[in-house]
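Format notes (please read before filing issues)

Several people have asked whether sequences and C-alpha coordinates are stored in separate files. They are not. Every record keeps both together, in the order shown below: the sequence lines, then the C-alpha coordinate lines. Line labels are part of the format and must not be stripped during preprocessing.
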Amino acid sequence: MPYWATPEFRPRLIVDDLGAEWEVYDESTWSLELALDWEVLPQHERPGLIFSSSRDRRRLWPCPPNWKALSDQELLALLGKARSIH
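Then the structure lines:
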Protein backbone atom coordinates (compact mmCIF):
# COMPACT_ATOMS: atom_id res chain seq x y z
CA MET A 1 0.00 0.00 0.00
CA PRO A 2 1.47 3.38 -0.94
CA TYR A 3 2.39 5.71 1.88
CA TRP A 4 -0.17 8.37 1.00
CA ALA A 5 -2.98 5.78 0.59
CA THR A 6 -3.83 5.73 4.27
CA PRO A 7 -5.78 8.79 5.45
CA GLU A 8 -3.75 9.36 8.62
CA PHE A 9 -0.60 9.88 6.55
CA ARG A 10 -2.05 11.93 3.70
CA PRO A 11 -0.88 15.53 3.62
CA ARG A 12 -3.38 18.35 3.97
CA LEU A 13 -3.70 20.64 1.00
CA ILE A 14 -4.14 24.37 1.63
CA VAL A 15 -4.16 27.33 -0.75
CA ASP A 16 -2.61 30.67 0.20
CA ASP A 17 -3.83 34.15 -0.76
CA LEU A 18 -1.72 34.09 -3.94
CA GLY A 19 -3.30 30.83 -5.10
CA ALA A 20 -0.27 28.64 -4.31
CA GLU A 21 -1.11 25.11 -3.19
CA TRP A 22 0.78 23.82 -0.17
CA GLU A 23 0.99 20.22 1.00
CA VAL A 24 1.20 20.11 4.80
CA TYR A 25 2.46 17.04 6.67
CA ASP A 26 4.19 15.94 9.84
CA GLU A 27 7.87 15.28 9.25
CA SER A 28 7.72 12.25 11.57
CA THR A 29 5.61 10.45 8.95
CA TRP A 30 8.66 10.15 6.70
CA SER A 31 8.52 7.62 3.85
CA LEU A 32 10.43 6.47 0.80
CA GLU A 33 8.02 8.42 -1.40
CA LEU A 34 8.94 11.62 0.42
CA ALA A 35 12.64 10.78 0.32
CA LEU A 36 12.55 10.67 -3.47
CA ASP A 37 11.14 14.21 -3.55
CA TRP A 38 13.26 15.70 -0.78
CA GLU A 39 16.66 17.36 -0.85
CA VAL A 40 16.96 17.94 2.92
CA LEU A 41 17.07 15.09 5.42
CA PRO A 42 14.17 14.87 7.88
CA GLN A 43 14.57 15.69 11.55
CA HIS A 44 13.82 12.47 13.45
CA GLU A 45 14.45 13.69 16.97
CA ARG A 46 12.56 16.99 16.65
CA PRO A 47 10.18 16.58 13.73
CA GLY A 48 8.54 19.65 12.33
CA LEU A 49 5.48 20.48 10.31
CA ILE A 50 6.40 20.65 6.62
CA PHE A 51 4.79 23.00 4.10
CA SER A 52 5.70 22.13 0.53
CA SER A 53 4.75 23.93 -2.68
CA SER A 54 6.24 24.46 -6.11
CA ARG A 55 7.50 27.85 -4.81
CA ASP A 56 9.09 26.91 -1.50
CA ARG A 57 9.49 24.28 1.19
CA ARG A 58 9.19 25.34 4.82
CA ARG A 59 9.49 23.74 8.25
CA LEU A 60 7.85 24.79 11.51
CA TRP A 61 9.18 23.55 14.87
CA PRO A 62 7.84 21.90 16.78
CA CYS A 63 5.07 20.18 14.89
CA PRO A 64 1.81 21.05 16.67
CA PRO A 65 0.29 17.78 17.93
CA ASN A 66 -3.19 18.85 16.81
CA TRP A 67 -2.26 20.24 13.40
CA LYS A 68 -4.71 17.99 11.51
CA ALA A 69 -7.59 19.49 13.49
CA LEU A 70 -6.59 23.07 12.62
CA SER A 71 -8.56 25.03 10.04
CA ASP A 72 -6.97 26.01 6.73
CA GLN A 73 -6.70 29.60 8.00
CA GLU A 74 -4.87 28.42 11.14
CA LEU A 75 -2.47 26.39 9.00
CA LEU A 76 -1.88 29.40 6.75
CA ALA A 77 -1.00 31.42 9.87
CA LEU A 78 1.54 28.72 10.81
CA LEU A 79 2.89 28.78 7.25
CA GLY A 80 3.75 32.45 7.81
CA LYS A 81 5.86 31.46 10.83
CA ALA A 82 7.60 28.51 9.13
CA ARG A 83 11.20 28.87 7.96
CA SER A 84 12.26 28.21 4.40
CA ILE A 85 14.48 25.17 3.94
CA HIS A 86 16.72 24.69 0.94
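For reference, the curators noted about this record: The radius of gyration is 12 Å. The mean pLDDT is 81.
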